[in-house]
Amino acid sequence: MTVPYYRDLLAQSDRIEAFRSSIREVVRDGDDVIDLGTGLGTFAFFAVDAGASRVWAVEGDPIVNVAKAVARANGYADRIEFIKGWFPDVSIPGKADVLIFEDFSKKLIDAHPYLLIKRAVSDLLKPGGSVIPERIRLMIAPLSSEEAWQKVAPFDGDEDQAYGIDWSASREYVLNTPHAVFLGPDALVGEPQVVLDFELLRLPDAAELTGNVSWEINEKRVVHGLLYWFDLELSPGLRVSNAPGESGPWGQFFLPAHFPIEVEAHQALSAGVGARDGLLAWEITCGEQRVRGSEFLAAPASLDDLFAMSPAHVPSLGERGELELEVLGLADGTRSYQEIAEMIRRANCDLDHDEALRLVANIFRGKIIRIRSSDVFKAEVEK
Ligand SMILES: C[S@@+](CC[C@H](N)C(=O)[O-])C[C@H]1O[C@@H](n2cnc3c(N)ncnc32)[C@H](O)[C@@H]1O
C-alpha cells in the first residue's frame, strides 16, 4: 500500500475515535499490548497514551518504516517496538494483555481476516486478555431497490441480446456475486437482523458459519435481494457500524435475488446466509418463491480449473518451476542477487543479464534497485 493510502485512513475519524475511546477503556496502566496491522502506528500510539508499558506494533507492509519515524518524532519510540513482518510468520517476543486488530474486509468471513483473528487470539493473548474489537455481528435485511438490482443484472430479456449477441450465459455469474454498495436505510424492507454473532475470544470454526432469520413484511413490496454488512463492538457501548446510513467505512454487500420476489402485506419472508472457505451463500424464501445465490457459482472457472484447485490435484513444476527451484537452490546465504542471476544466466543461455535479475527479484519478492554509494552516505547522515 502507498503512504497516501495510510494517510487517507486517518480521515476515517469516526472509526479512529471509536478505537481510541475503546483503547482508553480497555488498556490498563502497565499492560502489554499488541497492535496487529499497525499501519502508521495510530492505535499503538493510543495504547501508549492509555498507559501501556510495552507495545508490539506488527506490520507486514513497509509503511512500518514511516510509523517508526512518526513514533520518534512524537516521543513514543521508547515504549513501542515495531516488528516488520506478516503474522503468523513473524516472531513476536511476548504475549499481550490487550490485542488490537483492525484489518477487516467488507465480507469479514474471508480467510483473511477471519482465520487470522482466530490464530492471533489463540497465539498472542495472555490468559484473561482482551481483544479490540471484542464482538462482531453479521447483519442482513431484505432490500427493495430496482436501481441496485438493475445495476447488477443489466442484461435482462431483450438486453441480453445487446450488439446482436446472446449474453445470457454471463448473467448467472453476476447474480451469484456479492456487490459492494453504500446504501441508505430507505432501501430496507424489514428491520436489520443479526444472522451471525461472534465473540472474538470464542470464534467458531470457519466451517460452521450459517444463520437464518425471518421477517413479517408490513405492506406489499418487491424484494430484490439482501443487504449484508457487519458491525464491530469494540468494547461495551463502543461500536463501528456499517449499517445503511451509518459511518462504518466498509459499507455493505448487496446479495442479489435471481428474480424480484413479490411479497404480499403481512407475508413472511425468511433468509439464510452461510459461508464455506470464505465463500458466501444466501437463500431467500417467500411462500413458493425461493432464490439462492452462491459465490462459488460466481467464479468463472471451468471444470478443469476446479480440479486444479482441489486437494487431490497432483501438481508438477513445469519449465518455470524447474527454473525457480534452481534459483532457490543457489541462495546459500553467501551469494548476492547479482551473483545468483549471473549463474542462472550462464546456465540458461536464452536469458540476458537483466531478465535473470528480474527472475531472481520475482522469486525472492524483492525489488532490485541500483544504489549508489552517495545514496547510502546520504541515508546514513539522515539517520
Ligand atoms: C486497514 S490497515 C489499518 C491500519 C491501522 N491499524 C489503522 O487503523 O489505521 C490494516 C493493516 O494491517 C496490516 N496487516 C494485515 N494482515 C497482517 C498480518 N498478517 N501481519 C502483519 N500486518 C498485517 C496491513 O498491511 C495493513 O497495513
For this entry, give a set of tags.
alpha/beta, Rossmann fold, Hnrnp arginine n-methyltransferase1, five-stranded parallel sheet, 31% helix, binds S-adenosylmethionine
How is this structure best described in words?
There is one protein chain. The chain is an alpha/beta fold and 383 residues long. It has 3 domains: 3-133, Rossmann fold (3-Layer(aba) Sandwich), CATH 3.40.50; 136-304, Hnrnp arginine n-methyltransferase1, CATH 2.70.160.11; 318-382, no CATH class. Helix content is 31%, strand content 30%. The mean pLDDT is 90. The structure holds S-adenosylmethionine. Residues 9, 37-39, 42-43, 58-61, 63, 86-87, 102-103, 116 line the site of S-adenosylmethionine.
Number of domains: 3
**CATH 2nd-level architecture of the largest domain:** Distorted Sandwich
The DSSP helix count reads 12
What ligand molecules are bound, each kind once? S-adenosylmethionine
- In the CATH scheme, the class of the largest domain would be Mainly Beta
Structural class: alpha/beta
Shape: globular
Number of strands: 15
Distance between the termini: 24 Å
Poorly predicted regions: none
- Secondary-structure element pattern, one letter each: HHEHEHEEHEEHHEEEEEEEEEHHHHH
Global mean pLDDT = 90
Q: Gyration radius, to the nearest Å?
A: 26 Å
CATH fold-level name of the largest domain: Hnrnp arginine n-methyltransferase1
- The helical percent reads 25-40%
Q: Could you name the CATH homologous superfamily of the largest domain?
A: Hnrnp arginine n-methyltransferase1
Instruction: Bin the strand percentage.
Output: 25-35%
Largest sheet: 6 strands, antiparallel
